[in-house]
Design goal:
The complex is a heterodimer of chains A (346) and B (589).
Chain A lengths: L2 H32 L6 H16 L6 H19 L6 H26 L5 H24 L7 H23 L13 E4 L2 E4 H23 L1 H11 L1 H6 L4 H23 L10 H14 L5 H21 L4 H7 L1 H11 L9
Chain B lengths: L4 H12 L8 H26 L7 H17 L5 H23 L6 H19 L9 E2 L5 E2 L2 E2 L3 H23 L2 H9 L3 H6 L4 H27 L1 E2 L6 H14 L4 H25 L6 H16 L4 H6 L31 E10 L2 E11 L4 E5 L6 H9 L6 E6 L2 E2 L5 H6 L2 E3 L12 H7 L9 H5 L4 H17 L15 H13 L5 E5 L7 H16 L3 E5 L3 H7 L2 E6 L2 E6 L1 H6 L1 H8 L4
Parallel strand pairs in B: 7-12, 7-13, 10-11, 11-12
Antiparallel strand pairs in B: 1-4, 2-3, 5-6, 5-8, 8-9, 13-14
Helix pairs in contact in B: 1-6, 2-6, 2-9, 2-10, 2-11, 3-4, 3-5, 3-9, 4-9, 6-9, 7-9, 10-11, 11-12, 16-18, 16-19, 18-19
The chains are: A mainly alpha (346), B alpha/beta (589).
Chain lengths: 346, 589
């Protein structure tokens, strides 16, 4: 292997690793706040990517309708939960966030889809649509289960994943799609060619990591989320609405997922079911990061990306085996380093 | 303690099904699939629902079982009956290998770790040449007895359901035994189980192997039912599906696994065959509806369907009282080198910069009640944890009968005859009082898991339960013996903990705030009991805040404040000690 190939592999690994890092961060975030192991994260990726690609191709994405349908469901849940103490303001607020908002977005999508909108509009619409889906999903599927065990939440998460994946096939068909580059153009430095797209990936990943760091370190909502993650009951006692924390976490996760999808879809063809595996690799990074540490997750994601790039060159058949088996020595080291002083769980 | 009748009825019912005239052969295929899934789910019930270890990787063990028999019976021409033990051994030994790593993972690493190796193994199945890569292996010979070949789904039906019912019986026998109680205690954390000599990593590995062997059995049957294997049914999706079969059915119940398998298999089948009639044209609608139904089901019955169904049955009256005339042999006494039961010598425990216990020394003699008192945060419970091996001292030493036990784990301390209760009650709430107390006698029983499964442990088991019943009667809770521990009041739960500690046959009893939450009469009864125990030759070391209780009961009192011993003496001298008064009431004005 010469230096050029090696540099190329490194570059490829870092680009993929950056995406895994973002997904890993989102998984850590959601798990810490809601205890949900977010298997549908992969669907956020494909929904974001394929919505973007469909819009760019001038097609109407079904996800916009799904958002409205889920919004109606969320509205119904809100009304049902508050049925004993309904009052106008509550209904109005729920109506606006759950029905009026997705209806407007749907109208905009219909309007723009007909006329091949510019890239920026496609991105904005895709992000908003997937973000709403994430938010309403939390309301419908997970909020009623918030008090149950991690295991039950996990199974619910599987159910949501199955439903979303099926819907993905319905909306986007079995064929893969590619989207237009977010940033076209490229330049070369020595042997390496940097495309605008890969630079976007690096830029957005770094921006997100810094952004999350600022959000959690400096803002009140960020601190509320951290408090919820550390101790749900304690957070409620000091007046933090843990459902709000859950909603924010899902909102962030779905935006991150959609954004990752939009960044990958110009590089690789994505299918309705590609998200699962991409999400899982984010998972591997998140586990290496111990599901708690953001910087460690980011570093681990880069390692996963690099391992994947190199093993696809040397032993492409065993690429996935190597990536997932990588985890076992890591877990072993982790458990040796920190022998179980286990918290009691109820 | 389970009644056998429902199982016999169920077995007879299942045996009769193929003889029902006009039974569509397709239903038999469904029942075969249900049986296969139920075997795996049953393992998960034990692993996840009872033992608290969530595994996504069970599909990989099904794969081990299936591929073992596929390779051996095609490439090497072995008889399927010969490959059965080999399939089980392969699944079981790989479970040991993976389990040694996995069960040491704490908390959420564990399920994620299983997901990771589950995926890795799936890709390995689909890439290895000798396993036929993605195409798998076909032309696997059918099961046969003499010249009778089980070629049709109807003929292998009996093999599958005999396996299911036998496995269910063995699993339930295991749960209702000495080992089973140790497994059931796992979910509530390590500390309590270890304090009574349970080797928790070993117990976890055991359930891991049990689940893997059941999965391997399912894989073996699968290979001979389909007569072909390929990697698809052993992937991560399948692993996740097995888990939700267990959860939907009710993850804590062996029959929940069977029920869950029936629900999920039938539901999927119905969706696949009927949904296109209602919503024609689209491909994956059944997946969507299936996913939604799953979430809805969990929201309606988060504990699974089996316990929900069982709640409609009339409540069964409690089990029968064990025969208390059976005697359990006394614990083997450790040879003593000293008359002093317990000697704590300059014990020190630091947590970072905090000195929780600061060079504390005291001892406990034979036939003595010693009380350890002090304001909150004085280091009393930490001292207990140092003595019982839950924590190891930063410096100083703890000796039992003159032998240093500083680095000994809790399982070794209890063997020396030191048993304890906990400040925060650590009982298993969904086990009866009797079963909880019997955990205390864990080290005095000998039956292993295999003996338990085959019901060869009954004499051993009867003696353990008799001892537990005796101790429950001794502490005055005979009427609550068959109630669930979680349904008792906090004060009664503390008393249950004392009964459990007494089951160790201890020479020294460590009680952490035994009187908290007790009413006045109950406190007096407790004091009487403790005096009786002392007069019978036992020593007691107790932490307590109720001064009236302590002053009337203790022979000697040790006072701690901010981790340091400030006084020691008889109740009378402690009452008037100015240091003690200062610690409790602040500086006198």
């Amino acid at each position: 292997m010469n230096t050029t190939i090696m540099l190329f592999l490194v570059q490829d690994g870092i680009t993929n690793g950056a995406i895994y890092a973002l997904l890993g961060l989102a998984l850590v975030l959601v798990f810490a706040v809601t205890r949900v192991i977010l298997i549908p994260q992969g669907e956020f990726v494909t929904y974001g990517a394929l919505t973007y690609a469909s819009l760019a191709a001038g097609q109407m994405p079904g996800t916009a309708k799904l958002a409205l349908a889920l919004g109606i469901g969320a509205f119904a849940f809100d009304l049902f939960v508050a049925r004993k103490a309904l009052h106008g303001r509550l209904i109005l607020r729920s109506l606006i966030t759950n029905i009026v908002l997705p209806a407007i977005v749907l109208a905009l999508t219909v309007y723009f889809a007909a006329q091949k909108p510019p890239v920026a509009v496609c991105i904005a619409l895709s992000l908003v649509i997937v973000a709403m889906i994430g938010l309403y999903l939390y309301r419908i599927a997970f909020q009623p289960l918030a008090h149950t065990s991690v295991l039950v939440l996990l199974i619910a998460s599987v159910g949501v994943h199955l439903a979303l994946q099926g819907l993905g096939l319905l909306f986007f068909g079995a064929e893969g799609q590619r989207g237009p580059a977010v940033l076209s153009g490229a330049f070369t430095a020595g042997a390496l060619r940097f495309t605008g797209q890969s630079l976007t990936v690096y830029g957005i990943t770094i921006a997100f990591i810094v952004g999350l760091w600022l959000f959690f370190g400096l803002t009140l909502y960020g601190k509320a989320l951290r408090a919820t993650a550390v101790n749900r009951l304690g957070a409620r006692l000091v007046g933090i609405r843990t459902t709000l924390s859950g909603q924010i976490a899902f909102l962030l996760a779905s935006v991150i997922g959609a954004l990752s999808g939009i960044m990958i879809v110009p590089i690789t063809t994505l299918y309705y079911d590609s998200g699962f595996l991409i999400g899982l690799k984010g998972f591997v990074a998140a586990i290496i990061g111990g599901l708690v540490s953001y910087p460690l997750t980011a570093v681990a994601a880069l390692v996963v990306g690099l391992v994947e790039a190199f093993s696809s060159f040397y032993a492409s058949n065993y690429k996935e085996v190597i990536v997932f088996m990588l985890l076992i020595p890591v877990l072993l080291l982790r458990s040796l380093a920190a022998p179980a002083v286990e918290e009691e769980k109820d | 303690m389970q009644s056998r009748l429902p199982i016999i009825v169920f077995a007879a019912f299942m045996a009769a099904i193929p003889f029902v005239p006009g039974m569509p052969p397709f239903w038999i295929v469904l029942l075969d699939n249900i049986g296969l899934a139920a075997l795996v789910a049953m393992g998960l019930v034990l692993l996840t629902g009872v033992g608290g270890l969530t595994s996504f990787g069970q599909a990989a063990f099904v794969g081990f079982g299936a591929y073992t028999t596929a390779v051996l019976s095609t490439a090497y021409g072995l008889s399927p009956w010969l490959t059965l033990p080999l399939s089980l051994v392969v699944s079981g030994s790989l479970a040991v290998l993976l389990g040694l790593i996995t069960v040491r993972l704490s908390g959420h690493y564990l399920p994620l770790g299983t997901l990771a190796w589950g995926l890795g193994l799936f890709y390995l199945f689909s890439k290895l040449e000798f396993l036929g890569r993605n195409d798998g292996i076909s032309a696997i010979p059918p099961l046969s007895i003499g010249t009778f070949k089980m070629l049709s789904p109807g003929s292998i039906y009996y093999a599958i359901w005999i396996a299911v019912i036998l496995s269910a019986l063995l699993t339930m026998n295991l749960l209702d035994s000495r080992t089973g109680r140790a497994i059931r205690a796992l979910r509530r954390g390590h500390v309590a189980a270890e304090a009574f000599g349970v080797h928790t990593p070993r117990a976890k590995l055991l359930v891991f192997i049990h689940a893997a062997v059941l999965a391997g059995l399912s894989g073996w049957l699968y290979a001979h039912l389909q007569r072909a294997v390929n990697p698809t049914p052993f992937g991560a999706q399948a692993g996740i599906e097995y888990l939700f079969i267990a959860v939907v059915g009710g993850a804590g119940y062996v029959w929940g696994g069977v029920l869950g398998a029936a629900i999920v298999v039938v539901l999927k089948e119905m969706l696949q065959s009927y949904l296109p009639l209602i919503l024609p044209g689209s491909g994956q609608v059944e997946t969507i509806v299936f996913g939604i139904m799953l979430v809805a089901l969990l929201q309606l019955a988060p504990g699974g369907l089996w316990p929900w169904l069982m709640s409609f049955l009339p409540e069964r009256s409690g089990g029968k009282k064990p025969d208390t005339s059976l005697k359990l042999e006394h614990r083997a006494r450790a040879p003593g080198q000293s008359d002093i039961l317990l000697q704590v010598d300059k014990a020190r425990k630091q947590f970072g910069g905090v000195v929780a216990v600061n060079n504390v020394s005291f001892d406990v003699q034979a036939r003595e009640i010693v009380a350890l008192i002090g304001p909150n945060g004085a280091g009393k419970s930490t001292t207990f944890n140092l003595i019982t091996g839950v924590l190891s001292a930063t410096s100083g030493s703890v000796s039992v009968l003159g032998r240093k036990v500083d680095k000994a784990p809790p399982q070794e301390i209890v063997k020396l005859g030191i048993s304890r209760t906990f400040q925060h009650v650590k009982l298993v709430p969904d086990m009866t009082v009797l079963e909880n107390v019997a955990i205390g006698a864990h080290l005095r029983g000998h039956a292993g898991p295999i003996a338990s499964m085959l019901r060869l442990d009954r004499t051993d088991e009867a003696k353990l339960l008799a001892e537990a019943a005796r101790q429950i009667e001794r502490v005055g809770l005979a009427n609550q013996m068959h109630q669930l521990a979680g349904s008792l009041s906090l004060g009664q739960q503390r008393i249950v903990e004392i009964a459990r500690a007494l089951c160790v046959d201890p020479m020294l009893l460590l009680l952490d705030e035994p009187a908290a939450g007790l009413r006045h009469m109950e406190k007096q009864q407790l004091a009487t009991l403790l005096r009786e125990l002392r007069d019978g030759g036992m020593s007691v070391l107790l932490v307590e805040h109720d001064m009236g209780f302590v002053m009337n009961l203790a022979d000697r009192i040790v006072v701690l404040d901010f981790g340091t011993k400030i006084a020691e003496g008889t109740p009378a001298t402690i009452k008037t000690n100015p240091e003690v008064i200062k610690a409790y009431l602040g500086v006198a004005a």
